[in-house]
Design goal:
alpha/beta, Rossmann fold, 6-stranded parallel β-sheet, 24 strands
């Protein structure tokens, strides 16, 4: 496969790069979005500061940001800086299981050991972290994050920019609104309104005007 760019150099960017390489991609380079951060040259790769991006400099890319809001902001910024020439790549680790009857859209990253069941639909720029499972006919909006070890049941509806924390469980037929945060280890047993922070077993609303994560 052709090379792709990773948005974010260091930390989680390296994890996503590993997934991309396991999936057969070469790494064209990293786009660094935060010039204030000290760069650690831990890998041999081209590093492109985002402010130096010009049309044609980046052709295909994935965004290695767990934050749904930062991911959306960077994707939209790159669309402008690239003149619309940068296209989303989708990366699926070879150990992940994605049903042939499931649908993932551009920019989605599916990490090792994850399972996406039949009829599931993921929007653009989703991140499904290690060992997560997504049940049949569950739908995700754009820019969602599913943490490591999360289990989402069947026939759920997860709206855009929602973050489900490490090890959380969402029971069948649940709707979680947009811009929500489900705390690590929570068990969601009933619908969650937009802009909610929920935690606990069973999960309850801790904050009802949450801006998103």
């Amino acid at each position: 496969m052709d090379g792709i760019w990773i948005i974010g150099y260091r930390d989680f960017g390296f994890e996503v790069a590993d997934v991309a390489q396991e999936a057969g991609y070469a790494i064209a380079g990293y786009v660094e979005y935060d010039a204030s951060e000290k760069q650690e040259e831990r890998r041999e790769a081209r590093i492109l500061p985002i402010d130096e991006m010009t049309p044609g400099a980046v052709d295909r890319f994935v965004c290695a940001m767990t934050s749904t809001l930062l991911r959306q902001s960077l994707v939209e910024r790159i669309a402008v800086l690239s003149g619309g020439t940068a296209a989303p790549a989708s990366v699926v680790h070879p150990s992940a299981t994605v049903s042939r009857h499931a649908k993932t859209q551009g920019g989605t990253v599916v990490m090792a050991g994850s399972v996406i069941a039949s009829g599931a639909k993921l929007g653009q720029w989703n991140l499904v972290n290690r060992g997560a499972t997504i049940g049949h006919h569950t739908q995700f909006g754009d820019y969602c994050t599913v943490g490591p070890g999360v289990h989402v049941g069947g026939n759920c509806n997860i709206e855009r920019n929602t973050y489900i924390g490490i090890g959380a469980t969402v029971l069948n037929y649940i709707r979680i609104g947009s811009h929500c945060l489900v705390g690590a280890g929570a068990v969601v047993t009933k619908d969650v309104p937009d802009h909610s922070l929920v935690m606990g077993v069973p999960a309850r609303v801790i904050k009802s005007d949450f801006p998103g994560r």
